[in-house]
Specification:
- Chain B: This is Kinase A inhibitor.
- The complex is a heterodimer of chains A (322) and B (244).
- Chain A contains five helices and 18 strands.
- Chain B is α+β, with helices and mostly antiparallel strands and 244 residues long.
- In chain B, strand 6 and strand 7 form a beta hairpin.
- The interface between A and B is large, with 40 and 47 residues.
Chain lengths: 322, 244
């Protein structure tokens, strides 16, 4: 394994230790991580490898059943392109390369059974700040060897049996990307301190483009655009924040919190990104411009429940292919 | 976004995200609020609703996390998850009030002050026109209250520092502060659980692990606990290290 810029093992994250300030972590683009899992017959919440951009390679030491989803890279074996969002059988000895594609920034690699790293504090996700979880609590390094859990689901076994052989093999079907993939309009619900900001600031927030600065990572994105002005110089006492919370810093700049964010914060929260649009945010890269669009909390909740139902149905759709 | 209620509610329910509701009990730092929030925290863990996951106490808030798929399928009254959860939590208040005041544990944290363990001890003394010994005495004679855990895993926001010890942050933060370092910033004191960059004035270091993922309760401290610092010598500090 040669992990490229930043590769970590992630799953759906850990919420049980938020009160002890352990970040939730997990895949930045949960939807892609789940689709990659579902494509190999996993339940969806197994550990995946999150690659950032391309330039990574890995070699299959045994016959493996994998799939990938997300953005930022196309997987290739020699000049053979592996198609995303569907399973692929790879015979032992093949080396897979991640080749740059401009569609996003994070690629998720799932393997039948899920990647075999220990469960720490209830999750397999890597928490870099506390050096816990994932592969030895750290980002993957050149030469690391990972294996999958032995226990395959019945559907994973069926897919494996259907595709195995001497050659690289993929089925004809593919899982369609979620609706809205690739759009740059991010839906938000007004945050608890939304009314602390003056009208021109709110108009700017909901109309002007904001650009991801270079100061952007798994903890959060600094956004460049019109600054927010506050009515009152009120102080906010530290309180819970979550990925998707948009904070306004002392100088009026926006910070969008992401998967590895702190559990509490003291900056006013102008808005909360709809959970269904967090996968879009997880695929952004420095320089990308986004726009915010206001929706109600009721709409955000309905979108979330619909997406959960859709992902749930995907599992059955894959089962029906075998 | 206030939850409907039939009696005097001691909090306002706010939407945090699709999967979390924040209850706001007030707007100040006080032991009264800390106690209300601690009681409520005990009550929700004792009487959870279908889909309840966890809580995050803040200074004046507690946020309740849940699985929306389970909440929407639950029999809780209300049209959407926020209403279902907010109404349930409003109804839980009486049970929270009936809770015995669960006093937090008293945790003694041994600290080796000064020298390589506390490189800023002399500066803190100088700024406050005290001797280093007086700083140690003032810092280790108070009983501190843990208001919340935040910032990094296991970091406790402590209340109760003697204001004679207040000190501005360092002009340029250190790139790496050793785990266990005890610092002062403004009117606050705290212990760094992990090696992180930081701008606090470091007056000492504890050999205890403030956070360890291998423990059932990874964070040494929880909201509501009381803390005292006990001065130890460098040789005692080293003995702790060999034991750990």
């Amino acid at each position: 394994m040669n992990p490229g810029l930043l590769s970590t093992v992630q799953d759906m994250g850990r919420r049980q230790y938020l009160s002890q300030a352990v970040p939730v972590s997990g895949a930045m683009d949960m939807a892609s991580a789940r689709i990659a899992n579902i494509a190999v017959g996993n339940a969806g919440d197994e550990a995946v490898i999150e690659f950032t951009y391309a330039a990574a390679t890995f070699t299959a030491e045994t016959n493996i059943l994998i799939s990938y989803a997300g953005g930022g890279a196309v997987l290739k074996i020699d000049n053979h392109i592996l198609l995303a969002n569907r399973p692929v059988f790879i015979p032992a000895g093949n080396t897979v390369r991640l080749v740059n594609d401009s569609s996003g920034s994070r690629t998720y690699l799932a393997i039948a059974g899920g990647w075999n790293v220990p469960v720490v504090l209830g999750s397999r996700s890597t928490c870099l700040v506390a050096a816990l979880g994932g592969y030895q609590g750290r980002a993957l390094q050149v030469g690391d060897v990972l294996d999958s859990l032995d226990q395959l689901s019945p559907i994973s076994k069926k897919i494996f049996d259907a595709l195995k052989g001497e050659q690289i093999n993929q089925p004809k079907w593919t899982i369609a990307p979620l609706p809205g993939t690739g759009t740059k309009t991010i839906r938000v619900v007004p945050g608890m301190e939304f009314t602390w900001f003056n009208a021109p600031s709110i108009v700017n927030f909901l109309s002007a483009p904001y650009q991801l600065s270079m100061r952007s990572n798994r903890m959060g994105y600094h956004l460049e655009g019109p600054l927010m002005q506050r009515y009152a110089a009120k102080e906010l006492l530290s309180t819970a924040v979550v990925p998707g919370t948009i904070q306004v810093t002392g100088n009026g700049g926006l910070v969008l919190l992401m998967a590895d964010c702190q559990t509490t914060g003291g900056y006013p929260r102008i808005a909360q990104v709809a959970a269904v649009d967090m996968p879009l945010c997880g695929q952004l890269k420095p320089g990308d411009a986004i726009n915010f669009k206001e929706i109600s909390r009721q709409e955000a909740e309905i979108l979330y429940l619909e997406q959960e139902q859709y992902l749930h149905q995907l599992t059955y759709a894959v089962q029906s292919k075998f | 976004m206030q939850a409907p209620n039939n009696f005097q509610s001691s909090f306002t329910a706010h939407y945090l995200s699709e999967y979390a509701v924040t209850l706001e009990f007030g707007e100040e730092i006080s032991e009264d609020l800390l106690q209300k929030i601690s009681r409520f925290n005990t009550a929700i863990h004792q009487y959870p609703f279908s889909g309840f996951q966890t809580t995050v106490p803040g200074y004046a808030t507690i946020s309740v996390f849940f699985d929306p798929v389970l909440v929407i399928r639950s029999g809780l009254p209300g049209q959407d998850c926020f209403t279902k959860v907010a109404d349930y939590l409003t109804g839980l208040q009486q049970r929270a009030i009936d809770q015995d005041v669960k006093s937090g544990s008293l945790v003694t944290i041994p600290v080796c002050y000064g020298n390589i363990y506390g490189p800023d001890l002399d500066e803190v003394a100088r700024v406050n026109q005290l001797t280093a010994l007086q700083v140690i005495e003032l810092h280790s004679s108070a009983v501190y209250k843990v208001f919340m855990i935040g910032f990094v895993p296991g970091f406790a926001y402590l209340g109760g520092m003697n204001s004679a010890l207040a000190n501005p942050r360092k002009l340029s933060p250190r790139p790496a502060i050793a785990p266990g370092s005890v610092g002062i910033a403004g009117k606050q004191t705290g212990v760094y659980p992990l090696q992180t960059p930081g701008g606090w004035q470091i007056i000492g270091q504890t050999p205890l692990k403030m956070f360890a993922a291998t423990r059932a309760q990874p964070s040494l401290l929880s909201a509501g606990d009381e803390v005292v610092f006990k001065p130890i010598s460098a040789s005692e500090f080293k003995q702790y290290n060999t034991r750990a």
